[in-house]
């Protein structure tokens, strides 16, 4: 069933937002954040997943004001009922290539319901873009891939830096340098790694795909296509005595940002991460050790969820030599404490805010939500969660830098 934009806007869904996969480690963090935000006070929203018992327990923990929906994504009717009940769906049930997220995403694309998730499986994202971009364009659904730290800091950083160079002709080169990334990993992270290994064995992921920085933009040719690597850095870039080092998120973020983009980390990032781990005795000094072999449903300790942080500087350089530097900084373990809030804010933006009226499709946070999402993240937690700033370094004779 494919609903066009006119049909979709005539419907009045029951919920403003539905969170699927709410009972997992990250899902519970997202649910707790949604329950705390002022925007949903007096609004209707729901948690969803496969287990009625786990959903009931979480609903009791959260308190009044939240409904629950039990639905198996292999049940087409149940999935259709879930999607048709809401303006937006956010999904935490990964690995997404294995847990039938295609059924949920596809139903949203067909029905004109906005969707976002935390998938880090690039091959699966490419499959979803190929299958559902045109479907979502017709229905008006915005399918925002990478609703967490995988994409938002670098994607919005690129947006801010490039938008600060209006009227510049020729290609713009953007480079992101992560200067802080203090956090840990969960059982879900390990499961996603296993999903990638399984996909390689099945032939869904090839070496050429993993080396392609434009995997999610088929047919795109960038200024660096002939010489770049999957993270956009020059061929041969690697570990060594240099102030810039490889960054494990580069392959994911490059695919979700902009043409002629590269990403790496500073030496300081790794030194800062080592200091945090050592000074806390890997968490033993806090009474909550970091779990280095987490199972499903397990993740970073509570102190790291709060004390973790990330920071990235994105420098955009125009052909004329003019530059703009965007700085994106956030509090909380990047992959969990911070990502949970980012995904929740993406969902709220999709459901409640007036965002760009561009056609739907499979999009990035920048192309789907743009400045509306940046403004929402700046306001989150009274402005204490994230900062997104930009300054332009003018060419000679242009005057002072602008901010």
Automatic annotation (TrEMBL):
List, for all copies, the residue spans of the domain called Saccharopine dehydrogenase NADP binding.
17-141
Q: Which Pfam families match?
A: Sacchrp_dh_NADP
Q: Name one GO biological process term.
A: glycolipid biosynthetic process
Q: What SUPFAM superfamilies does its record include?
A: NAD(P)-binding Rossmann-fold domains (SSF51735)
Domain of life of the organism in this record?
Answer: Eukaryota
A Gene Ontology cellular component where this protein is annotated is: plasma membrane
InterPro entries linked: NAD(P)-bd_dom_sf, Saccharopine_DH-like_oxidrdct, Sacchrp_dh_NADP-bd
Q: Matching Gene3D superfamilies, A to Z?
A: NAD(P)-binding Rossmann-like Domain
Q: Which family does it belong to?
A: Belongs to the saccharopine dehydrogenase family.
Q: What is this protein called?
A: Saccharopine dehydrogenase NADP binding domain-containing protein
């Amino acid at each position: 069933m494919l609903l066009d934009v006119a049909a979709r806007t005539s419907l009045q869904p029951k919920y403003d937002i539905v969170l699927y996969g709410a009972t997992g480690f990250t899902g519970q963090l997202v649910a707790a954040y949604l329950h705390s935000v002022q925007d949903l006070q007096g609004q209707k929203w729901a948690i969803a997943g496969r287990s009625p018992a786990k959903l009931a327990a979480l609903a009791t923990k959260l308190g009044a004001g939240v409904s629950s929906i039990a639905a198996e994504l292999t049940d087409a009717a149940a999935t259709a009922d879930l999607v048709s009940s809401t303006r937006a769906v956010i999904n935490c049930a990964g690995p997404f290539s294995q847990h039938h997220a295609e059924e949920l995403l596809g139903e949203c694309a067909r029905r004109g319901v906005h969707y976002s998730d935390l998938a880090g499986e690039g091959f699966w994202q490419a499959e979803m873009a190929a299958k559902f971009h045109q479907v979502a364009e017709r229905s008006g659904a915005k399918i925002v891939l990478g609703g967490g730290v995988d994409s938002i800091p670098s994607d919005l950083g690129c947006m801010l830096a490039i938008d600060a160079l209006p009227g510049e002709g020729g290609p713009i080169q953007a480079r992101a340098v992560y200067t802080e990334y203090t956090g840990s990993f969960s059982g879900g992270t390990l499961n996603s790694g296993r999903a990638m290994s399984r996909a390689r064995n099945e032939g869904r992921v090839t070496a050429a795909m993993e080396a392609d920085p434009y995997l999610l933009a088929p047919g795109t040719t960038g200024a660096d296509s002939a010489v770049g690597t999957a993270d956009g850095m020059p061929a041969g870039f690697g570990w060594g005595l240099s102030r810039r080092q490889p960054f494990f998120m580069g392959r994911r973020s490059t695919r979700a940002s902009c043409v002629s983009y590269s990403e790496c980390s500073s030496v300081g990032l790794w030194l800062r991460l080592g200091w945090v781990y050592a000074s806390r005795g890997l968490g033993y000094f806090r009474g909550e050790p970091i779990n280095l072999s987490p199972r499903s449903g397990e993740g970073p300790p509570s102190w790291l969820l709060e004390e973790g942080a990330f920071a990235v500087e994105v420098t955009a350089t125009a052909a004329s030599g003019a530059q703009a530097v965007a700085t994106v900084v956030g509090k909380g373990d990047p992959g969990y404490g911070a990502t949970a809030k980012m995904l929740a804010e993406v969902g709220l933006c999709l459901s409640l805010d007036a965002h760009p009226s561009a056609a739907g499709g499979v999009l990035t946070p920048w192309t789907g939500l743009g400045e509306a999402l940046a403004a929402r993240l700046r306001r989150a937690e009274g402005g204490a969660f994230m900062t997104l700033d930009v300054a332009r370094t003018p060419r000679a004779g242009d005057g002072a830098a602008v901010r």
